[in-house]
């Protein structure tokens, strides 16, 4: 036990004396939360609009006013030709152009039907579609209003939508669990594997192996500092998410922490497994960095919805632990569900933990080869 | 004490297509054998790639041999590896220290690993440790090669091992520190410690009680340094003069010269018995070399090593 303690203390020396690495370890979650929370914003706001309205009248003016009054839109340009619109789009000055035909008023009065053209920049398809949907919504609202005034309402079917769990559609609700899945895995796995492989590379592992220390003592002592570091990271992320980004913690906090600990443990074991394969620190970094970060980012559902993936990739996501962890965290934090709803995911994580534990035990050697 | 019998461990090197390791000769059953009594300093001497590290790692329970047997004290290196790990002090080829930890922290850590304390064994390591104690707050990474070596030795000795296994402890260390190091080993030996040490520096061989000359995974001789030198049968001369480097080729052209090797500022050559120094001297003068002097010399261990190597070929 005394040996074990001395070993853990030594590991903390390594961490604290490498200030730069420690700064990265503790700063990364903060940076990620800030970047995802503020810089990378999936919501579409601040939409610049240009209007081409050759014959203004009450209706068109009111439509333009409605659009301009909306929080998301601001009408910056009133133009007089199609060419000007093209020019504004080319200069990236507008996101949307509204074009009324010359005969808008006549059409509306005479045939009860008038066209309005919405031109949007869809070089980013998501944003483009969202902008058009917003604008269409505003125009539809306006149409309802004038129908009402004119007194002969046609049949109307109104769909009322209720947005569960995230009514404001904040993207932070979905990326915070993603960031948790990513950061905890990367830090635990990469740091554990690097710290073990470093001993191999420097030759100190040889001395440790030739000493009375048990291999299990060495390996467990290696993981403890990173377990505590990851724990600090977990609390940092939860704190920032809750207080800074307003992400709710609707389910049990204890359960969230417990499941996260399981996930951290799984990641540490991954690091151990990598350390049994890698001979150089660079190899460990590549394996844990590229081998884990990329799949986690791409296949965990963090960036791309799993439902939309091709069959093979979709199946592949099943072996990504982060996928299950992110689902659990979403259920617990955002949906506020209880344990009975995450039994399947927790069992999968437990199974993976057992498998990785077995694999790394088989692969760990009490000798050099 | 150390007992090694028919030990063999081969690596296939895909690059050269050759086998490396120990006991790599055709007779695979034979392997290498060795016996070191308690309280002896036994040196394994040979160039890089001779198999010294492989042998030492097997003895330190870090590698499994392909065949053969090895015992340290009464323990077998395979079955009783746990016991062996308690009684050996092992210093691998590189100084295995934690460079970001101070001298004191390194020593303390290894003391705890071996379930002891610096205080308990201070007397035992005093001679060595005192030399680096003034720098005990300094990080190991900031020490000189000689000081690193002393710290590594202190760490290996902190639990008073019965057997000390030192893999090339003097490589990369300045000559003064090397001499001091061997003095320390002699002292430890007087305390009854069995010391197995390898080196590529042939001049260190005479500091050992007995040596094994190792080449390509085989022992080509095991004896005291004096006996190995006494066994040297050839006529050995040293040749000095101007333009030594080009002279070597001309010496080799001389029919009665058997071997010739450069040894710093002279050449060591072996010659047929009937050759006289003046004959060779005249030959070299005719070739245009000035200030040629030829003397009889006593062979060094390196001469013996070269001669034995030559015999085999």
Please tell me about this protein's structure.
The complex is a heterodimer of chains A (369) and B (313). Chain A is elongated, with a radius of gyration of 28 Å. The model of chain A has no long low-confidence stretch (mean pLDDT 89). In chain A, strand 1 (47-52), helix 3 (58-69) and strand 2 form a beta-alpha-beta unit. By secondary structure, chain A is mainly α. In chain A, helix 2 runs antiparallel to helix 7 (172-202). Chain A has two domains: 2-40 and 170-363, no CATH class; 47-150, abc type-2 transporter like domain (abc type-2 transporter like fold), CATH 3.40.1710.10. Chain A is built from 14 helices and four strands. Chain B is of the alpha/beta class and 313 residues long. Chain B folds into two domains: 2-229, P-loop containing nucleotide triphosphate hydrolases (Rossmann fold, 3-Layer(aba) Sandwich), CATH 3.40.50.300; 232-312, Alpha-Beta Plaits. Chain B has helices at residues 52-59, 81-87, 103-113, 118-132, 145-157, 175-190, 225-230, 244-253, 277-286, 301-312; strands at 2-12, 19-22, 32-36, 41-45, 67-72, 75-76, 88-91, 163-166, 194-199, 210-215, 218-223, 235-240, 257-263, 266-271, 293-296. In chain B, the strands form three sheets. A six-stranded mixed sheet of chain B has the order 7-8-9-4-10-11, with helices on both faces. In chain B, strand 8 (163-166), helix 6 (175-190) and strand 9 (194-199) form a beta-alpha-beta unit. Chain B is globular, with a radius of gyration of 22 Å. The two termini of chain B are 34 Å apart. Chain A binds chain B through residues 2-3, 6-7, 10, 13-14, 17-18, 202-204, 206-213, 366-369, and chain B through 57, 60-64, 81-82, 85-86, 88, 90-101, 105, 108-110, 112-115, 155-156.
């Amino acid at each position: 036990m005394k040996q074990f303690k001395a070993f853990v203390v030594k590991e903390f020396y390594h961490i604290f004396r490498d200030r730069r690495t420690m700064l990265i370890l503790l700063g990364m979650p903060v940076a990620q939360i800030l970047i995802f929370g503020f810089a990378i914003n999936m919501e579409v706001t601040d939409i610049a609009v240009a209007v081409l309205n050759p014959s203004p009248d009450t209706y068109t003016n009111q439509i333009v006013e409605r659009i301009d009054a909306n929080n998301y839109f601001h009408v910056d340009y009133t133009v007089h030709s199609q060419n000007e619109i093209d020019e504004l789009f080319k200069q990236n000055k507008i996101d949307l152009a509204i074009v009324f035909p010359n005969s808008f008023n006549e059409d509306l009065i005479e045939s009860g039907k008038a066209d309005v053209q919405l031109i949007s920049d869809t070089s980013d398809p998501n944003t483009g579609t969202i902008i058009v949907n917003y604008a269409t919504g505003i125009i539809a609202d306006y149409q309802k209003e004038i129908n009402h005034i004119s007194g002969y309402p046609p049949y109307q079917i109104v769909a009322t939508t209720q947005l569960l769990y995230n009514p404001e559609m904040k993207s932070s609700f979905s990326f915070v669990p993603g960031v948790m899945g990513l950061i905890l895995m990367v830090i635990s796995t990469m740091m554990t594997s690097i710290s073990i492989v470093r001993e191999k590379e420097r030759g100190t592992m040889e001395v440790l192996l030739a000493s009375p220390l048990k291999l299990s003592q060495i390996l467990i002592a290696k993981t403890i500092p990173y377990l505590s570091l990851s724990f600090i990271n977990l609390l940092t992320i939860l704190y920032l998410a809750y207080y800074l980004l307003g992400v709710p913690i609707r389910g049990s906090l204890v359960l969230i922490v417990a499941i996260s600990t399981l996930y951290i443990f799984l990641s540490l074991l991954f690091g151990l497994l990598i350390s049994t394969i890698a001979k150089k620190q660079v190899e460990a970094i590549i394996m844990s960095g590229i081998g884990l970060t990329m799949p986690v980012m791409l296949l965990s559902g963090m960036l791309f919805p799993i439902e939309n993936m091709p069959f093979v990739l979709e199946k592949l996501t099943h072996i990504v632990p982060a996928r299950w962890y992110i689902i659990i965290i979403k259920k617990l934090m955002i949906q506020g569900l209880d344990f009975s709803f995450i039994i399947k995911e927790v069992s999968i994580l437990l199974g993976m933990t057992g498998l990785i534990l077995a694999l790394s035990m088989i692969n760990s050697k009490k000798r050099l080869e | 004490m150390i007992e090694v019998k028919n030990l063999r461990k081969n690596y296939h090197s895909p690059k050269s297509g050759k086998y490396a390791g120990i006991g790599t000769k055709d007779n695979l059953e034979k392997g290498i054998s060795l016996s070191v009594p308690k309280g002896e300093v036994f040196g394994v001497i040979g160039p890089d790639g001779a198999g010294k590290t492989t042998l030492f790692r097997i003895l330190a329970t870090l590698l499994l041999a392909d065949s053969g047997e090895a015992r340290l004290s009464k323990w077998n290196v395979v079955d009783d590896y746990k016991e062996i790990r308690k009684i050996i002090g092992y210093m691998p080829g590189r100084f295995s220290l934690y460079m970001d930890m101070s001298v004191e922290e390194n020593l303390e850590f290894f003391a705890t690993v071996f379930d002891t304390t610096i205080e308990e064994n201070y007397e035992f390591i005093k001679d060595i440790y005192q030399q680096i104690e003034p720098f005990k707050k300094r990080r190991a990474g900031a020490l000189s090669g000689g000081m690193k070596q002393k710290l590594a030795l202190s760490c290996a000795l902190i639990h008073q091992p019965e057997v000390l296994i030192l893999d090339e402890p003097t490589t990369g260390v300045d000559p003064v520190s090397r001499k001091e190091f061997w003095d320390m080993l002699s002292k430890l030996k007087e305390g009854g410690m069995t010391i197995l040490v390898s080196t590529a520096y042939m001049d260190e061989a005479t500091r050992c009680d007995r040596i094994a000359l190792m080449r390509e995974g085989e022992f080509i001789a095991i004896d005291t340094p004096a006996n190995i030198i006494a066994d040297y049968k050839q006529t050995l001369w040293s040749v000095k003069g101007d333009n030594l480097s080009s002279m070597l080729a001309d010496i080799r052209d001389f029919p009665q010269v058997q071997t010739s090797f450069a040894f710093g500022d002279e050449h060591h050559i072996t010659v047929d018995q009937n050759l006289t120094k003046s004959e060779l001297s005249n030959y070299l003068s005719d070739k245009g070399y000035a200030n040629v002097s030829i003397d009889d010399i006593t062979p060094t261990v390196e001469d013996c090593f070269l001669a034995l190597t030559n015999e085999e070929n």
